[in-house]
Amino acid sequence: MAIKIKQLTHIYNEGTPFEKVALHDVNLHIKDGSFLGIIGHTGSGKSTLIQMFNGLLKPTRGEVYVKGINIHEDGVDKKHIRQSVGLVFQYPEYQLFEMTVYDDVAYGPKNLGLEGDALKERIESSLKAVGLDEEFWQKSPFELSGGQKRRVAIAGVLAMNPDILILDEPTAGLDPKGREELFSQLKEMHETRHLTIVLISHSMEDVARYVEELIVLYRGEIAFKGDTREVFKHRERLEEIGLGVPQIRHIMDALKEKGMLVDTDVLTVEEAASKLIACLEKEVNNA
Amino acid sequence: MKNIVEAKDLTFEYLIHDDQGKVEDTIIALDHINVTIKEGEFVAVLGHNGSGKSTFAKHLNGILSPKSGMLWVNNIDLSNGEHIWEVRKDVGMVFQNPDNQIVATIVEEDVAFGPENLGVEPSEIRKRVDEAIHTVEMDDYKRVSPNQLSGGQKQRIAIAGVIAMQPKCIIFDESTAMLDPIGRSQVMKTMQKLNKEQGITIIHITHYMQEAILADRIIVIDEGKVLLSGSPKEVFKNVEEIRRIGLDVPDSTYLIYLLRQKGYDLDPTLLTTKEVVDAIWQLKSNN
């Protein structure tokens, strides 16, 4: 079990007029090797929840376990927890500061005490994992495009060698190609490094295409959790709570409503096309 | 109708300096670009990160000045970096990050900031602020502190601040990038309302193809040049060209493209969910 959250409640400014319950009695298990998405509208508690995962916030009530360790128990090494759970904030490229891409990625592992070949290996494999070739390594991070900067920042977190990688809207502000590249790289890291990945997204199309499981937060509680396809079956409820289903589902649902005998349960446009073709061909054969 | 923006051979370069301050490299961000935008038009500008679209937008209210070429905005000559204060009365800009554009501690004071700086009479300011807040449907939040608002609400306050200056044109520079689905649709509705009801010219820079459908015209910028310009139907039918430059087409258009690839006879300019659903239904009925 990568992360376990038990009866967690978090209240900001408790006991003041600005008191706000951000999370209410949340129970959650994230298995090792998950590729999980978190969706929910602004203020639903997503960012609060992910800051619980590496102990950046201490819950008002409840327990957080990382790899079986209760992280708020006395004597637990928080530094170790934060190395094991890497957190990539929104717009992480604003946190780049070194003269070269290479040095920026080196900052974390150096502080962990790595040196020599081990350090070199760590930096280079992290940069390669995010798809930044050698030609970029000696450049200033500020010469790079938005998407490239973001990948440098993610490489910096990867270089800490975390077991669990948490990302808060990793593709916000990236163009379609940048979004696709970043998601493909995350997927590959998940597959080849067996990294547990948890990410927040506002794009239903992106989570439908890439993540395996979904958590839907609504007003500080978990509204749905499960297989991505299963979660998106609840179109009505998802729309009620300010989210929705991928665009393509609107087309499929409308066709079904007209009377087409098609399986509407699709996650991507490609899948929709092949289901529609199967349906149209069947009609021809029957005719 | 008269032109509000007229750019002829507009060119802009970014200079990259080395450690000694000598120019090491130049990047041509806008390469002899020709664009005209009519008063009252709703234009979406698309392009990948680094294509030059934001550089172009920043010329329209004098944040950047052209290296060469001509630029007229609302009959003001911006070719030489002069008259920028005049043009900023007419052309407002809403940026990406809602937190970076709020200056006051109370919503209505924030909205009043612009007209105050223009030297508008106090009674007139009162009137404009009330109207602007009403237009963005935030009447209930006049005396609230902006830090208690959601991202979409903050963006609408930023828009109200621009409207209170009574501009003829508003540029939205990826103003929806950081918002959740509800926030995005709120801001899009506000844009459409300003365009339809008040005749304000809207220039919307976005990475969301679904938003670009709502525009009268789409301009696609690539490598500092205008690659495509036309109605959403005309532009999005070029599926392969658009994907080649790292952008995407709406899911509805892509579905039609995939079905056409398999030999189905469908009109490549279909765009809305309804059009696509009707066309596929027709196909089925013809079988």
TrEMBL record, chain A:
Keywords: ATP-binding, Cell membrane, Membrane, Nucleotide-binding, Translocase, Transport. Residues 3-244 form the ABC transporter domain. One of its GO terms (cellular component) is ATP-binding cassette (ABC) transporter complex. It comes from the Bacteria. It is found in: Cell membrane. Its main location: membrane. It is a peripheral membrane protein. Coiled coil: none annotated. Its EC number is 7.-.-.-. Pfam families: ABC_tran. GO terms for molecular function: ATP binding; ATP hydrolysis activity; ATPase-coupled transmembrane transporter activity. InterPro entries: AAA+_ATPase, ABC_transporter-like_ATP-bd, ABC_transporter-like_CS, ABC_transpr_CbiO/EcfA_su, ECF_ABC_transporter_ATP-bd, EcfA2, P-loop_NTPase. PROSITE patterns: ABC_TRANSPORTER_1 (PS00211), ABC_TRANSPORTER_2 (PS50893). ATP-binding (A) component of a common energy-coupling factor (ECF) ABC-transporter complex. Forms a stable energy-coupling factor (ECF) transporter complex composed of 2 membrane-embedded substrate-binding proteins (S component), 2 ATP-binding proteins (A component) and 2 transmembrane proteins (T component). Belongs to the ABC transporter superfamily. Energy-coupling factor EcfA family. This is Energy-coupling factor transporter ATP-binding protein EcfA2.
From TrEMBL, chain B:
GO terms for molecular function: ATP binding; ATP hydrolysis activity; ATPase-coupled transmembrane transporter activity. It is found in: Cell membrane. It is a peripheral membrane protein. The keyword Nucleotide-binding applies. Residues 5-248 form the ABC transporter domain. The keyword Cell cycle does not apply. CDD domains: ABC_cobalt_CbiO_domain1. Its main location: membrane. Keywords: ATP-binding, Cell membrane, Membrane, Nucleotide-binding, Translocase, Transport. InterPro entries: AAA+_ATPase (IPR003593), ABC_transporter-like_ATP-bd (IPR003439), ABC_transporter-like_CS (IPR017871), ABC_transpr_CbiO/EcfA_su (IPR015856), ECF_ABC_transporter_ATP-bd (IPR050095), EcfA_1 (IPR030947), P-loop_NTPase (IPR027417). GO terms for cellular component: ATP-binding cassette (ABC) transporter complex. Belongs to the ABC transporter superfamily. This is Energy-coupling factor transporter ATPase. It comes from Zhenhengia yiwuensis. The lineage of its organism: Bacteria, Bacillati, Bacillota, Clostridia, Lachnospirales.
